[in-house]
Design brief:
Blueprint lengths: L10 H18 L3 H12 L6 H13 L3 H14 L4 H13 L3 H14 L4 H13 L3 H16 L2 H11 L3 H14 L4 H13 L3 H14 L4 H13 L3 H14 L6 H14 L3 H14 L4 H13 L3 H14 L4 H8 L8 H12 L5 H17 L3 H16 L6 H14 L2 H6 L10 E6 L5 H9 L4 E2 L6 H10 L19 H15 L8 E4 L8 H7 L4 E6 L2 H9 L13 H21 L4 E5 H6 L1 H11 L46 H6 L1 H5 L6
Parallel strand pairs: 1-3, 1-4, 2-3, 4-5
Helix pairs in contact: 1-2, 1-3, 2-3, 3-4, 3-5, 4-5, 5-6, 5-7, 6-7, 7-8, 9-10, 9-11, 10-11, 11-12, 11-13, 12-13, 13-14, 14-15, 15-16, 16-17, 17-18, 18-19, 19-21, 20-21, 21-22, 23-30, 29-30
Length: 678
């Protein structure tokens, strides 16, 4: 959720905070006129301060000034469409006017954005009961009652969590647990906060401990499965989902457990079980838009494009403003929108009631739809708008990325790598495909996975998790401990790290001697890979700077890759990527095989033979006919790699050359140094 526009720092900020406290105090004392007048006066100087707008709207509602309150809320939600308390206040105002449809929509949105708002759950329960939806009302009432029973400290921590004030939430939780050591909700909440902060090891341990003490704490098990999935412990997550499904049979939450079980089944490659479960639930409860979406994703993964398209359309019907369903259609890459669909997407994106995440999904979908129709200028406008909306919720920092790049170059020296040469786990199994997303890595993976001695897997997070574990827990302001501590590791530790990687990734393999890890971000950790797995192969998938960056700019990723949401960010990231890869070439000469996407397109067989030679593999014709290989593909390029190679994607960026002039200027040196096609 977006925060309020920043106020001046120092004494002015202190004065502002004091004023807010004074207004809240006036409301608590029921001096609503005084609170209203003070808020109005302050808003003359800070007209977009969301906290002031919220307090003004509440005062106006208490005074019975409902029209004015509604106008204030419209201003607030224009400034910050994800303001949960703003939506809650909108629900309260509408409920007093007996506008049940508006109240219902507002309370639902508030609970989606911040499930810790107990007043929204109460309002939702009352509104649903008034509409004779007893089952949904009962669920909302249970949520309200659960929150009412929580200690105030934990309720505040939960609300801070959903407001993305993670460190404040963590501090509250830790203070509470010092007094109430094994409080189940305290343990669960601290684990969820830890997971949001990326401290997955601690979150895993906390939830495992919580469930050992309270095995019937179902919400903790739901959260535990989520953490296990983030850690790519898919087999354990599936077993936990199975336990949860058994525990909740015929109880509240049984369907959610079944959906989770289906999702985990898909994660381990059991697509038949996943689809059978999704099919049954979709027929029983066609209003569950998320089930149709997940069903579509599985169908896309296994290559049934027509069925996937139908599932995504079912999701649109279940939730007409479901931006992710429209984007999923666009992300098929082969789907073409009809005129009526484009008109509908425009209307939905412009509607004030459409949530931000739905809006940016619609923006990216419109960009793709219009690009397919060669309306390039307007397509770029939609891509640009979608990126701007997405960027509002990202926490990417160019400065932090540059610092991390500098640290890799400073610490992963030739001397370090020579000192530990051959010290890690000597298994030759992994083939790492690294680079930037949308640089052709899925194409290279499909080519290699078509070989009889190579398993294709996923974009595995295990190397990134290893780096995080080595870095340890620290405050964001503290200097990273990794990669400097690589100088302190014993040879035995490097063997353990390599073996742990092989053990953790074994679940994704199907028995071939070699396997692919195509997490592109692993380029940042080639020094670590060399130390722990010295015999691993590393392929750098590279694409023309403008082609690669623009392809990333117009792609909405399911998670991560936050550097892509802005031309400046992605251009700077590309420069640091090239700078770091140049460093690896200097300190590990001949280690990394660079494969240019354009060369694969122009000379497929020549590049295939080159790649196979590097990997020590005999030539197989199946690698040339990669598009015939039947395997699950979980990336945006899934449908593209099921077609013969084509040249049309090489220079798509040239249709947008005028809009990309700033990016071209930023990447002038990288463009000049990019080799022509061989």
């Amino acid at each position: 959720m977006s925060s309020s526009p920043s106020s001046p720092s120092g004494p002015a900020d202190s004065n502002h905070q004091a004023s807010l406290i004074e207004i809240r105090g006036a409301i608590k004392k029921r001096d609503f006129s005084g609170a209203r007048d003070q808020a109005l006066a302050l808003l003359e100087e800070q007209p977009e301060d969301t906290e002031l707008l919220y307090l003004l709207a509440a005062s106006q509602r208490y005074l019975g000034e409902h029209a004015a309150a509604q106008q204030t809320l419209e201003t607030l939600l224009t400034v910050d469409s994800e303001n949960a308390r703003g939506h809650q206040e909108r629900g309260h105002n509408a409920a007093q006017l007996q506008d049940t449809d508006t109240a219902l929509a507002a309370y639902r949105r508030a609970t989606e954005l911040n499930p810790a708002l107990h007043a929204s759950w109460r309002g939702l329960a009352l509104t649903l009961r008034a509409q004779d939806d007893s089952e949904a009302a009962e669920h909302a009432l249970r949520q309200f009652q659960h929150l009412q029973k929580l200690p105030p400290e934990l309720l505040s921590a939960a609300s801070l969590l959903y407001e993305r004030k993670l460190h404040k939430a963590e501090q509250l939780c830790r203070t509470f647990l010092q007094k109430h050591r094994h409080h189940p909700e305290g343990m669960r909440l601290l684990a969820v906060i830890g997971a949001e902060l990326g401290i997955l090891d601690d979150a895993d341990f906390l939830l495992e401990s919580c469930l050992a003490l309270y095995p019937d704490f179902h919400q903790a098990r739901f959260d535990y499965i989520g953490v296990l999935r983030k850690r790519q412990k898919f087999a354990v997550a599936l077993e936990q989902a199975r336990i949860l499904t058994d525990q909740l049979k015929e109880q509240q939450g049984a369907r959610q457990a079944e959906i989770l079980f289906a999702t985990q089944s898909a994660m381990v490659g059991d697509y038949d079980t996943a689809l059978a479960t999704y099919d049954r639930i979709a027929s029983e409860a066609p209003e569950l838009h998320g089930v149709h979406l997940q069903r579509g994703h599985v169908l896309k993964t296994i290559g049934d494009a027509d069925a996937a398209n139908r599932a995504y359309h079912d999701a649109c019907r279940a939730k007409p403003d479901f931006g992710d369903a429209y984007w999923s259609l666009a992300n098929m890459k082969t789907y073409r929108f009809e005129d009526a669909e484009i008109t509908r997407m425009r209307e939905l994106e412009a509607a004030p009631s459409t949530a931000r995440d739905d809006r940016y999904h619609l923006c990216f979908a419109l960009g793709k739809a219009l690009e397919d129709r060669k309306n390039f200028a307007e397509a770029f406008q939609w891509y640009e708008k979608g990126n701007a909306l997405k960027q509002e919720e990202c926490r990417y920092s160019i400065e932090h990325n540059r610092r991390d790049t500098d640290l890799q170059i400073a610490h992963c020296t030739r001397a370090l790598l020579d000192r530990y040469a051959g010290a890690g786990c000597d298994a030759p199994d992994p083939i790492f495909i690294v680079g930037l997303p949308r640089a052709g890595s899925t194409l290279l993976e499909q080519i290699l996975a078509s070989h009889s001695q190579v398993d294709g897997t996923l974009e595995l997070h295990n190397i990134l998790a290893t780096a995080r574990r080595l870095d340890g827990r620290r405050r964001a302001s503290e200097e990273p401990r990794y990669p400097a501590l690589l100088h302190e590791l014993e040879a035995e530790k490097l063997v353990q790290l390599g073996q742990r990687y092989l053990d953790e990734t074994r679940i994704h393999r199907a028995g071939a001697p070699l396997f692919i890890d195509k997490m592109p971000n692993n380029f940042r950790h080639i020094g670590l890979i060399q130390l722990m797995l010295p015999n691993a192969k590393i392929i750098d998938a590279r694409r023309h700077p403008l082609s690669c960056c623009f392809s990333g700019f117009k792609q909405l990723f399911a998670e991560g890759q936050e550097f892509t949401y802005g031309l400046q960010q992605i251009g700077e990231y590309y420069r640091d990527y090239v700078r770091l890869m140049d460093h690896w070439d200097r300190v590990l000469p001949g280690k990394v095989l660079r494969v240019h996407y354009e060369n694969v397109v122009s000379d497929l067989e020549g590049q295939v033979r080159r790649i196979l030679d590097y990997c020590g593999l005999p030539f197989e014709e199946a690698c040339i006919d990669f598009h015939k290989t039947e395997r699950a593909v979980r990336t945006p390029s899934a449908e593209q790699v099921r077609q013969p190679i084509y040249r049309s994607g090489v220079e798509q960026w040239k249709h947008f050359e005028a809009q990309l002039e700033p990016l071209k200027a930023l990447l002038a040196a990288e463009i000049a140094g990019y080799p022509a096609e061989s």
